[in-house]
Amino acid sequence: MDNSDVIIIGSGPAGVSAALYTARAGIDTMIIGGKESALLKAREIENYYGLSLPISGTDLLQNGVEQAQRLGVKILSQEVVGIKEENDRFVIETNEGSFHGKIVILATGASRAKPKWQDIDTFDGMGVSYCAVCDGFFFRGKDVAVAGSGPYALHEAQALLPIVGSVTLCTDGKSLTADFPPEIKIADKLVMGLEGSSTLSTVRFKDGSALEVSGLFVAIGTAGSSNLANTIGANIKAGNIVVDTQMCTNIPKLLAAGDCTGGMKQIAKAVYEGAVAGTEAVRIFRS
Predict the structure, then answer these.
(1) Most buried residue, 4, 16, 54, 164, by CB count within 10 Å?
(2) Are 191 and 240 found together in one domain?
């Protein structure tokens, strides 16, 4: 069983940002992260400080990983399936083994569930988006749809309303679990799939009808990292991990940062919280 002073679960902006602070403080640091990240679906990012030109989410992620590796951070591409406390340490269980850590930072992001609609993968980055704040600007004045039926879908739709021409909620037959304003149209029919030539142009319903749109924003699901937090007894509220101002949970030496804590799902927010969590981890380690 491998040991590290700090284990960070998640290799996105929050996790890597935390690792930069702990590694530069001379603390043995390991990042364990899977291959899924919302950033991988971002074709162009231009609302983050320091970018003279847009950058793809894939390139930004890779830059962060290489930066952490240059500082000596160990990065493992494994799926974390469990976490528990044992003899004043945390045991992180993955699909390939177990690891001991004195301090753990949860930075796995929030789950972004994807509907199983025909050809939805074909239009990733070509009309299908997973962040209204990030990509809404590219659809200004156009008709768009939001996939979902709850509070997250409402949040994305409201972010789009001032920018786009119209917003239609595609519930795929599911009941609404949030109060949507009248300016958001509701399409509660079952969805068959997406159509278009090079970019998305149509949402096709199973009854044969269609909705013409330029974009579809997927807003289904809640924070997936809450499952790990629940396993060890960390407080969860509305699907998000509850933290204090130093990103500490109610479990000593267990911190969380990024999308999994709620709020804006933005790179800037994730990097900030990662920096706070990393700094606090250094203080805890030295105390």
Answers:
(1) 16
(2) no
